[in-house]
Amino acid sequence: MHLDLRKNPSTLRFRGLERAINPWDFTRFACEPPVPSMRLYNNHFPWYIDVESSNPAGVTLHDLFSAVWLAMMTPISQADWWNNEMDETTRERITRAWTERCVDEAERQNGVRRVDFLMERYLLLGFEKGRDGMWEMKVKRQ
Description:
This is DUF6699 domain-containing protein. It holds the Pfam family DUF6699. Residues 2-133 form the DUF6699 domain. InterPro entries: DUF6699. Strands 1-4-5-2-3 form a 5-stranded mixed beta sheet. The two termini are 14 Å apart. A hairpin with a 2-residue loop joins strand 2 (37-42) and strand 3 (45-52). The model has no long low-confidence stretch (mean pLDDT 94). Helices cover 25% and strands 20% of the residues. The chain has one domain. The protein has 142 residues and is an alpha+beta fold.
């Protein structure tokens, strides 16, 4: 799969699928066997993303990508920006990511979003079963 996490999930593309993704594709389960919830993590993203199922049988691709989109577009707080884990160099890199993501003044007015913490690692490649029953979001640099 290929998804720029700075963009809407409607831009998602699956490798090997020669047609555009349609709404029915998003009704399919995110994993097999289906699970009622998922917790996503990435070592470069300081928050978990909790995915809850809208389908009693399990998490769908719609549930998964909606939760990821919502998490990525969440504005950060002052505490996120001024936490003890970050130094000035990291803040500068996040600022560069924010500047690159924002295509117009209206978007700049919304401030830094969580996706900017991924800096140049904003291409989502997929999910892999990880530690303690969680799922790792596999991302790479542009």
